[in-house]
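G., the chain you wanted modeled:
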Amino acid sequence: MRAVIFANGILSQTLSVRSLLKPDDLLIAADGGAAHMQGLNLLPKAAVGDFDSLDAESLNALENAGVKIFQFPIKKDLTDLELALQYVQTQGIREVVILGALGHRWDQTMANLLLPAAAAYADLDIRLVDGSQEMTLVRTGQTLKLDGQAGDTLSLIPLAGDASGITTQGLEYPLERETLSFGNTRGISNALLGDSASVSVEKGMLLCVLIHAGK
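Predicted structure as tokens:
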């Protein structure tokens, strides 16, 4: 099973969202993400957050529809999205897709982009999707396989320091056990040569941003 979390940011290209979903996905609303789901006529299995972005009528409607509600105080240490990730962990699910994670607030957007890098979620395979763009983290000793088409853009961004021993396959500018330095832009705007590619890292952490040209 896979979990799909709808966050409260901007949901781009809503018409393509349904094509991402699978029949057995566990759908979760992180606070105001429930409104995105309502607009798509989707019902979450669970809704998590303090619900300061969702009116009481909508929250009651979810509860009456049998949705599991996990409400937290507004004054809390974790964002609604992180609380949703913790709920996913309690369900024993490893693969997670997050929609609506980006928005107008840079602080929230940055926090959401970096959330997969937290040690607490190293056991999760997290992918953030925003329209034609998707973001995935590659950690020490891991290999990420990517599906796309020739001409798709792939950027590799080191997090938490330099990433070394990077080897890629299927990219216009290949890397063979090379290092990308933290804060350096060398890994930006590579491109897929065909319908698949791979990125492996011996040490460090890479945020991989894939932009599909045909979407």
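The longest strand covers residues 163-169.

Shout if anything looks off.
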